[in-house]
Amino acid sequence: MKLVHHPLMPATPGTSQALVSLHYGTPGTGPKIAIQGSLHADEVPGMLVAHHLRQRLQALEDAGRLRGEVVLVPAANPIGLHQWHLRAYQGRFEFHSGENFNRNYADLTDAVVAAVQPHVGADAATNVALVRRALADAALALPAKNALESLRRTLLALAIDAEVVLDLHSDGEGLLHIYTTPATWPQAEVLVRCIGAEVALLAERSGGDPFDEACSMVWLDIAKRLGPDAPLPPGCMAATIELRGEGDVRHDLAAADADGIIRFLEARGVVHTDAPPELPALRCEPTPLSGSIPLVAPTGGMVVFLRQVGERVTAGTPMVDLIDPFTAEVTTLTAPVDGLFFARDNRRFAVAGMSLGKVAGTQALRSGPLLSA
After folding, report:
1. Which InterPro entries match (predicted)?
2. Residue 66 CA to its chain's centroid (Å)
3. What is the second-level CATH architecture of the domain 290-360?
4. pTM, 2 dp
5. Structural domain boundaries in the chain
6. Which of 111, 122, 267, 339 has most Cβ atoms within 10 angstroms of its Cβ?
7. pLDDT (tens digit, 9 = 90+) per residue, 302-336?
8. Helix (H) or strand (E) holding 304
């Protein structure tokens, strides 16, 4: 294993922060896989899964079973880890700008098209290799005028040329679920089987330029720009894995999730096995992210959930009571669609406009930005 410290741009004189990446296997001998934990630094389950993964990856490397390179970033947000305020942990938004740490990643399409267009041709494999190298160069060349942009550039440079990118997050309270794109669903289905995900949400553009889409959608955009005479298949399957809820920081869950990811690496041929692994049964069919409908609080108040995460509901099912502590008025929110109640907030007092939970339906009903803030 090779451990690399990546210094970030200091926010003020006399301070320093660095991102740490762990590199297993040998670059160039097989696929490159990039896995990072807790880009939202207040979502700890990803860090714990990375803790278990590093032990498994080291054992596989020692046994000579890795084919290619696995880059593991165990804590993807050292800036967010430092953000404590009045005994409360604030790892989702950067203090200075207010920006979500998982938004506004660079679109490298223009830079890559300019670099490769004179060289691409009719051979798809050659085009993929050209684009992969150009993506790595373009990420390293990104400007950074502050610490947050420095972090984004470093994370993108570590992952942009990978064949698989896994971004480990968690919801407030929820089922194990993933976000990915329709173009990569045949590959992502294997991941869903291996980790036992119970919901798979698909969208080409969820809005806000999150990390996973910056790594995967750029391939489709480049392919469109190059045209049919320079075929370019999707070169990156990127997925955000939501590891249940923020409070699910348990060794048994993290060990099972790490085992599922290793099973996926076996299925991809990154981990050598004597025989192809038998894939577990698929626990869900994919549904559109635009069919995931939030429960939005029309008023503030105490939050009393009437349904548990994992329940299937029908439109009109009572889901949550909002109680005004001053007037005793009770407002009951009902399920907006038929579907699976797969995630809910872990706070029990709401402000008006707050999203309290999500029901995954099968119909694409929303448009515009599809992710929560």
Report:
1. AstE_AspA_cat, N-alpha-Ac-DABA_deacetylase
2. 24
3. Beta Barrel (2.40)
4. 0.97
5. 2-285, 290-360
6. 339
7. 999 999 999 999 999 999 999 999 999 999 999 99
8. strand 301-305
